[in-house]
């Protein structure tokens, strides 16, 4: 499918983290708060099971995987599914199991793009809870997701009851009331700080990945410049730019001047090279003429007197 071959500049890789989490939680009825919580590979397997029912052996998927070797087993199941469906997407298991936010976000962005491309992202009669029961740790995942949703439902009721009791007990102590009401604000601030830290981690990871990408390109160019087959090219100009220690525009100007100077030298040397090519040709022709004369002399000297008389009789001078 087209989703298996998408570039890094595709719109799929610009989908936000919150949208990805909302899609995972609504599709599989989970309660993930971070994308890296899906680093075990079990969520990826069930997402493929949702769009391709019956293809994924869910009894081999481990939702309780915590160690890397357990996570690798889940990714082996996912790779087998990719092979069955002839999906050419490369799975960077060594990076995903490290639970790095950026790597897991990018792979999950690709997963969403692929799942949306299958039947328009519409899931028909899929029960994620029932399918997850066949997996190892699937029932424990239900228990973790259910209590996490319960406080959100009862949170609208319990604060009112607590506030009425605290108001009755602390009518004469307004300072104590203000201290009680400041707790939710601090919790909200801590959550905002956590989100900001996660965003900064993603930003740093993206910068590191971009740095490694361009460094690899520069390293390839450097290795190419060291090959002897391209010595006639302006390699010094390229190396001048590669090894520049600061962002100075004069470096580029110097490199361009070196290229133009080498082109001018090649234009001046071209007629000299042509003349030098003609000299060996003339010398070889002279050598051929000399060699033929030497062969004729040798043949005359080695001929017998009878052969010489026959040659003279056959010459055009005797006919006259």
From TrEMBL:
Matches recorded under InterPro entries: CH_dom, CH_dom_sf, EB1_C, EB1_C_sf, MAPRE
Gene3D superfamilies cross-referenced by the UniProt entry: 1.20.5.1430, Calponin-like domain
Xref: CDD domains: CH_SF (cd00014)
Stretch forming the signal peptide: none
Transmembrane regions listed in the UniProt entry: none
Pfam families: CH, EB1
Gene Ontology MF terms in the entry: microtubule binding
Keyword Cell cycle recorded: yes
Basic and acidic residues bias: start-end ranges: 276-286
Biased composition (Polar residues): 152-165, 299-320
Any one GO CC term of the record: phragmoplast
Subcellular location: Cytoplasm, Cytoskeleton, Phragmoplast; Cytoplasm, Cytoskeleton, Spindle
Domain (EB1 C-terminal): residue spans on this chain: 182-251
GO BP of this protein: cell division; thigmotropism
Stretches assigned to the Calponin-homology (CH) domain: 14-116
Keyword Cytoplasm: yes
Record's keyword terms, sorted: Cell cycle, Cell division, Cytoplasm, Cytoskeleton, Microtubule, Mitosis
Location of region: Disordered: 132-187, 273-320
Sequence similarity: Belongs to the MAPRE family.
Protein's name according to its UniProt entry: Microtubule-associated protein RP/EB family member 1C
Organism encoding this protein: Dioscorea zingiberensis
């Amino acid at each position: 499918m087209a989703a298996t071959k998408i570039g890094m500049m595709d719109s799929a890789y610009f989908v936000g983290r919150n949208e990805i989490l909302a899609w995972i939680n609504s599709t599989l009825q989970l309660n993930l708060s971070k994308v890296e919580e899906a680093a075990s590979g079990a969520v990826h397997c069930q997402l493929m099971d949702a769009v391709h029912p019956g293809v994924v052996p869910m009894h081999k998927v481990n939702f309780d995987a915590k160690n890397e070797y357990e996570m690798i087993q889940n990714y082996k199941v996912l790779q087998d599914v990719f092979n069955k469906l002839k999906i050419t997407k490369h799975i960077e298991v060594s990076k995903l199991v490290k639970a790095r936010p950026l790597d897991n976000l990018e792979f999950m962005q690709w997963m969403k793009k692929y799942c949306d491309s299958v039947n328009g992202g519409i899931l028909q009669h899929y029960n994620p809870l029932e399918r997850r029961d066949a997996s190892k740790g699937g029932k424990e995942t239900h228990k973790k997701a259910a209590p996490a949703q319960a406080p959100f439902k009862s949170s609208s009721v319990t604060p009112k009851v607590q506030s009425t009791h605290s108001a009755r007990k602390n009518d004469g102590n307004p300072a104590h009331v203000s201290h009680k009401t400041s707790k939710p604000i601090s919790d909200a601030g801590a959550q905002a700080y956590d989100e900001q830290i996660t965003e900064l981690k993603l930003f740093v990871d993206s910068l590191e990945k971009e740095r490694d990408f361009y460094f690899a390109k520069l390293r390839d160019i450097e290795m190419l410049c060291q090959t002897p087959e391209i010595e006639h090219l302006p390699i010094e100009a390229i190396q001048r730019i590669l090894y520049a220690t600061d962002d100075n525009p004069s470096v580029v100007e110097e490199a361009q001047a070196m290229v133009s100077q080498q082109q001018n030298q090649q234009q001046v040397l071209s007629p000299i090279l042509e003349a030098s090519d003609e000299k060996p040709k003339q010398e070889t022709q002279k050598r051929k003429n000399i060699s033929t004369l030497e062969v004729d002399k040798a043949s005359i000297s080695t001929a017998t007197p009878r052969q010489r008389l026959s040659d003279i009789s056959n010459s055009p001078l005797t006919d006259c």
